[in-house]
Batch of 2 targets.
Target 1
Amino acid sequence: MATRKKSSRRAPARQASVRTKVKAPRKYVYSFDEIRIAERAAGSADNLRGLLGGKGAHLAEMKRLGLPVPPGFVVTTEACNAFLAARDRFPRGMWDEVLSAVKALERSTGKRFGDSAKPLLVSCRSGAKFSMPGMMDTVLNIGLNDAVAEGMVRLTGDERFVYDAYRRLIQMFSTVVLELSAKPFESLLSDYRSRRGVWNDAELPAEDLKEITTGFKRIVEEEAHRPFPTDALEQLELATKAVFRSWNGKRAQDYRNAAGIAHDLGTAVNIVTMVFGNLGTDSGTGVMTTRNVTTGEDQLEGDFLVNAQGEDVVAGNRRTLPIAELGRVMPKVDKELRRISRLLEKHYREVQDIEFTIERGKLWILQTRDAKRTAKAAIRIAVDLAREKMITKAEAVLRVQPDHVDFFLHPQLEAGARASAREKGDLLAEGLNVSPGAAIGQIVFDADTAEHWAHQLKKPVILVRPETRPDDVHGMLAAQGVVTSRGGRTSHAALVARQFGIPAVVGVVDIEVNVERRQLKSASGTLLKEGDWLSIDGATGEVFKGELTTLVPDVTDPYFVELLSWADRFRELGVWANADYARDAERARRFGAEGIGLCRTEHMFFEAERLPIVQSMILARTPEERAEHLAKLLPVQRADFVGLFKAMDGLPVTIRLIDPPLHEFLPSRDELNKAVTELELRLKLNDGDASVLQRELHAKRKVLESVEALHEQNPMLGLRGVRLGILMPELVRMQMRAIAEAACECAREGVKLKPKIMIPLAATSAELKVQRALLEEEARMVLKEQGQKIPFQFGTMIEVPRAALVADRIAEFAEFFSFGTNDLTQTTFGISRDDAETGFLSEYLQKGILVRNPFATLDERGVGELMRIGVKLGRARRKNLEIGICGEHGGDPSSIDFCHRTGLDYVSCSPFRVPVARLAAAHAALANGRRKE
Ligand code: PEP
Ligand code: MG
């Protein structure tokens, strides 16, 4: 029971009051009518949500708007944090405030808590600053005991309703507060259901529910070794503590980790007068969003149930009705709900997710919050709200997250593969299309297996469950996709999948999921076991057996195009692409790339038919021999560049000269050694034709000799980049010639050219000077031969710290810089980029020694500082020096933000990241304001 000491402020307060104002004791409880006081205490709307939690702040706000919200109050997140810090003790004074707030509730409702004549029942619900659907606890119907139940039966004349509410209280209280297993309660309910031959609990008669209530109390005594508490205030106190504690529950922590929510925010507790949706056919309950959050269309989306209480809708164990049916069943309520829906959307300037209950024909709003949505819907809604002038275009751009755009580019099932799978009868079933995108993976039936297979065994998995619960979230996050046989659009599985962009199909009633046997069965009798392949389409709701092929989605969706065009208006950074082939360049251009920031020319050497020529060129013994092989490479490289220039007609194309060490093109030293030893052995043992073996051995030894000659202990710090160009000038001369000849050919055809020649890995200005002179000479020769005038720009990559530190000198010979942050990160940290992720780096990340992977998100303090220096020095020497980035960081939103702040001209990233980068660059501009000139 609540026996907290009265707060006793000590004498010094009086002393202090002489000189300063007495500091009011902290207020931990606010009634829904006290929003103004709470606003003053919090200081801002954002802080108000922090203090009262999203749910509490919105309930109070709705009260202020005059909407039908049941009376209630909020215990603040500060109380929660104080409670958790004091190891599960309420802060001083808090409980007294709760008792006064209960008294006030009694006054305003005319009912009394724990009183059988005029019973007041309340719910105790969690509500953090950021919504974490289903991750924390809630207890409904607090205030019921045997006497109150009998009193309510007398008042309502509805024994079924009362005992349904009572058994729910015991059930929820037991699992949430007493932390008992849900199983014995569920199995008792299911015994009664099967005895009556009914599918859902709502069909059980009053006498059964009464017996079940007694049975539940017995289970509590047996399992918890204590009776179910009959005192209403004790129920409330224990429930409040449990809700506070649930902030630190595993599933809540997992969710916060995944959603990037801080762990120190705490949850508020909302104590709200119960209203009942299970009082007959003029009552009901539902959840809906003010627009369709799957497609973004401007129509209500959601489900409701007649004669049901809150969790029935989301639990998925009763077949819900679509919200469009409400008008038919309860036309007046429907009209009112639509009015409120518009009002709330306008008020919050955002699509809302609303929970409501209808008690004997009266509509009550129990919650409103910003609705979670699919990526597709996020984009359409943002565009529509801006067109409707509810928000500005800048706000619309800010409301779409880079992840939404990224998701938009997710693969889809290929139409042909889909059609033939249908024909073959591989379409197992269709369910609700709640989170778009195609997912292919091996079936797993529980969250732990999903996580294990995905993370440890590196298998793509599809999590298949009858329904999901909050403690399945870690498995959902590990899975490629999720399928549930039950549940609706607002089911847990649907909400979570949508938020995290996991393709999902729910409510697939035609498949029977047997978790115990680890198998699923379709209506037509197909049996699939754990490990079998499944392909799902979260946009259509189809579930196929087997591995279907996927394809890149259509990026011509008009809302997507429009939103990105708005983003382009706000961003100041250019967005270029890293592309090696004409086809990549074409795609990049379709996605909005404004240039090629990096063409890795050596990638062209790796093509199967070219590699032998490259190898012969490297192994050549004489300059003449080498020249012969280079001459063979020239036309193929030229053709590549022609393709690239044509694809990017009118836009800059940055061609990076060969970078990797030559041994990368040759067979591995270990394998050659092994082959030589084997051949020697076979010769000794006379195993095979000696002359053939001799010839083979000779050839292998020759290759091995060259490989040995090129061998370096640290090749990434060795003969590569500009060093290679200096030591093997004929190689880069050939590349320059290929570029120049391609440019001449294109110019003759009328292609507009902006070719940029990029020299990799320079550390000194002397290297650049020498290399550039050589390249310019070759270019001049070609232009003269061809009688053309094409301006080539020469620039360099800044990939080693020294280059950044002497950028002023480097800029003497470079007309542009591009930060190669893959190498710059490697050389700044001294961590091998090839081994990093498989080595100690992951351990560092797990232990928090490094907060982020510096190869994914730019390390601002270190690598970023070098970049700042490089930009400053470079521009000091050459005012109009063009500066970009072409490491992987060029497609990472937070690194893009840094590039904006550092005054880069453009970011260059892989073609698929281009739309993401366009949006991220707009976000950077909108968040940071205009850049310094
Ligand atoms: C870099 O180092 O960032 C870069 C783009 O070059 P590469 O990845 O080819 O070494
Ligand atoms: Mg590099």
Target 2
Amino acid sequence: MKTSLVTGATGQDGSYLIRKLLSEGRRVCALTRRVSTSNMARITDLKPGVQENGSELVYCVGDLTDSPSLMRVFDEYAPDEVYNLAAQSDVRVSFDVPEYTGEVDALGALRLLECIRQLGLTKKTRFYQASTSELFGAVREKPQSETTPFAPRSPYAIAKLYAYWTTVNYREAYGIFACNGILFNHESPYRGENFVTRKITRAAARIYYGLQEKLRMGNLDSRRDWGHAQDYVDGMFLMLQHDYPDDYVLASGEQHSVREFLEIVFRKLDYDLEWQGHGVDEKGIDRRTGKTLVEIAAEFFRPTEVDYLCGDATKARKILNWRPKHSFDGLIEDMVRHDLELTQHEKKALDKL
Ligand code: NAP
Ligand code: F7E
């Protein structure tokens, strides 16, 4: 049985990838870090031990800022595959904690690759690095593909740039089967609530059930290429099963603004938003009730913004036969339905008090 180590196991992508790898019959080592509050919400249903289909789940503790903990895990499990998903992944927060972001996102990848090298696993262990469309930053061409030059615009993107080139370097220098997945934004009901799509679907559901009055937003006019996380973890898996290592863009090829995303979500809940005012004074008002549902707040803007992202995933489609199954509307439906259910439970619990 092949052993796959997943860092960032408690995150959005980790929670989907573990399920995928278990369904493929792997022994999965899910790396989690010690934190003072519970971080297991997305995977509470995944119990350790042998699963019904014969696959196996093991939880192990480690932190990307702590080499000894990583060495111990590699020494014990000698994984056939490593999916490095762990990161301080919030772009805006990276401006507040730039050094920490570099420790985890840049040096964390180096520490994992050093485990492979120092423990003599270079011929055995395949490595996936969670690279990002944020590398394209102030975009040099449209759409962006594997050959587009990088122009990072945040401490997060700069840290990920270091990890990207370290992955390429360890592939070339030591012959490690190491791949970069340059993934454009991908979302799901498991998306962290600080990221814009989930912030919107969660707030819209809370407004719908009367648990929140309005939503405070940053830059509504930035544009993203949003896909579904489930499709993107399938792509990660394909990269490590291929005959040779390489770097791939995964993207939907479709682009929408934050404003459009927000309007669609509210429309699904029967609100009809009209925009009034400009800049931080802009407001989203429901035409039927005259209520202000959306306001702009300066705190959600970034010192440097990435305005425009749209990916070209031709290479992944041709070489890996990667075929995303979800549409943009299907993604929104999935998220809205989930957050309506979640909020309904929240409201029932509150009503009982
Ligand atoms: P996420 O939900 O924020 O998950 C991040 C994971 O990293 C969590 O499990 C977190 O653990 C873990 N982590 C953070 N610091 C750590 C440390 N010092 N040591 C060990 N683990 C640590 O991120 P995601 O959306 O699933 O994204 C997965 C990866 O893909 C990230 O590397 C992200 O930067 C990258 N990426 C994401 C997207 C996207 O659109 N989602 C696109 C391109 C690239 P806790 O639960 O304990 O906090
Ligand atoms: O912002 C704008 C914001 O935080 C998207 C991470 O997974 O994808 C993610 O990074 C856009 C930005 O994602 C709010 O300014 C407006 O232009 O959802 P986000 P991100 O920064 O694109 C990439 C590919 C990663 O690699 C990252 O790890 O939305 N925006 N108003 C807002 N964003 C947030 N968070 N909150 C707002 O209120």
